[in-house]
Amino acid sequence: MSMISDASSYFRPLNYTTSFTDPAVRSYTKNNDISWDLLTDATRALVIDQGDYFAFTVDDIDRRQALPGFIAKASMGAAYNLSNEVDSYVSNLMYTAVNQTANDLGAYVADISDNTAYALFVNLRKQLVKSNASDGALWSVVPPELYAALLQDSRFIKANEAGTDAGLRQGLVGRIAGFDIYESNTVPQPTSGTFAVLAGSNMATTFADQILETEAVRLQNQFGDGVRGLHVYGAKVVYPTALALASVTVQA
User: CA-CA distance, 137 to 50, in Å (whole number)?
Assistant: First the structure.
């Protein structure tokens, strides 16, 4: 039985958030009665319903003969692959939520030779502001192909023009048109060569995860150890209007 099946009891609603309808804004006439709105609420549950695991064996002979640190290196590689699975899941969830909505800008060609990538982010930002998404913490995730196009534009690579001189951190590669730009290999590709470039506000999506177990166990039927780990997580798009999308093709 897989560890994910063993951990099925952990796949449960993690928390609940309650959202309310916005009150109406009305004209005021002096000395007249005002109208009161009754707020209606909707509860959203974030369910941890995704699970991934890794498991590998280490023979005692390999442990003795191999260079020190190879188990830690293998575990780090597994952790990196787990994070890629999460990135793919969340990005595809957001893509599905905004695809073919009013915030889907449709097809766009970013030409490296004439710096048209900059205009893409100007249009994405405009759409988000029109949708009343907060512009205080806007982000966009781009594939390496689009990042290469941005590197041709001084408005992106110069700190004084990008609006920040912060160092690289956790995939953050710069700022442009008010967006924190993150580079990722997990940007959705609905069709070959076309990237679903997402942009949005931090308010759009909620996420929760747990590392339920990472352990080394002695194997019963061989001379060696087993190393295994389990990661469960869930995400929900709570404000789809705080996301924007463009289907981008990059050409030289």
Answer: 27
Amino acid at 7: A
The rounded distance, in Å, linking the Cα atoms of 200 and 194 is: 19
Quote the CA–CA distance of 215 and 33 in Å, as a whole number. 67
pTM listed for this prediction: 0.74
* Domain spans in the chain, listed from the N-terminal domain onward: 52-251
75-102 pLDDT, tens digit each:
888 888 888 899 999 999 999 999 999 9
CA 10 to chain centre: 23
- pLDDT tens-digit map of 157-199: 664 455 555 544 456 788 888 899 999 999 999 999 999 999 9
- Biggest CA-to-CA distance, the chain: 90
Q: Are residues 17 and 206 in contact, defined by beta-carbon separation less than 8 angstroms?
A: yes
